[in-house]
Amino acid sequence: PTFSTLPTLSTPPTPTPPTLPTPTPFTAPGPHLCKYTCIITDVGACVSCFYGAVDKGQPEAALRHAGDDATLQAAVVQRLVENGDAVTATEYASRCGMEATDLCSSEELARVAQERRDAYLQLPGEVAAAVVFVDDEEGLQRAAAALLQAAVVGLDTEWAADLTKVDRGEKGAGGKRSRKRERGKKKQIDGLNKGDVGAIADAAEAAAAAAAAARRVSEDDGDDDDEQDERPSTASVVALLQVATETEVFLLDLPALLKRCPDALAPTLGAVLSDPKVLKAGFGIAEDLRRLAVLHPIAFGAVREGGPASGVGPIIDLQNVWAAGTRIAREEAAGAAARGRRATAAGY
């Protein structure tokens, strides 16, 4: 039999694999280095840190630490709006080159501003008019001229928040020096209450001695090796100096003054603090003077650091006066009670 030739089977073509897109390398979200808190964190934790600073009444410190970061600047402004401080929010937004209305409507700003005014006691008009903000050389010279005419001025300082502590709910850094100062204050007050100081005048002299010690900042290096590397942190920088007479209150923006007219501080504020005819009063004033001396040694520091030739003074620490007055009141109350008991025993 004749067989037909079978057809030759062709080899099926090899299928070409589909071209797949090149995969994009995966980048895990956070954590990354937050340069503002100097800890490894994520953006959410960093923003919450700034929220905490604003909530604690330190919006200026938060804005300063935000630097040029638009996200963190907006977080500070937004938190101010949420807290009802529309006035400060508007000011900060302007300083950062944004509009507060970008974050909320003008009606919302007006509403929170009114709510804030309704929630807090407002200063009487004549008192509010006596509060003067100082952030340039002209205002500084005017403030110094008024302060030099006063017999007594009240003094207090405020400093920046430590944002690395705010986020973790910790107290500000201070180390051994801070603890030593606190122990010293407690020992001094306990001594006053026990009668180691016989009169308020003696307490004032003790305050003057404490302030004199505070002026010797360069000598306060500690006696332990582990204290030698301590340096003032940004949280110890004085942000606001409050000085008042009987009729005026001056709020001095020291960071702004140091930037605009640093050479004007010594002949103005330095002259006020060193004038022997002007008594400087404060509560825990030694710490205020210590921080001022660290901030600007020429204006507020010791003579050996180029500070005022006559030193800083005279001063009186009202904390010591209060402690001495409390001791005297206790003694008088105890004496009156003893006399009452004797009168009762005698049948009067």
TrEMBL record:
It comes from the Eukaryota. SUPFAM superfamilies: Ribonuclease H-like. Residues 220-229 have a biased composition (Acidic residues). GO terms for molecular function: nucleic acid binding. Residues 174-186 have a biased composition (Basic residues). Residues 1-24, 168-190, 212-233 are annotated as: Disordered. Residues 10-24 have a biased composition (Pro residues). InterPro entries: Exonuclease_MUT-7-like, RNaseH-like_sf, RNaseH_sf. PANTHER family: 3'-5' EXONUCLEASE DOMAIN-CONTAINING PROTEIN (PTHR47765), EXONUCLEASE MUT-7 HOMOLOG (PTHR47765:SF2). This is 3'-5' exonuclease domain-containing protein.
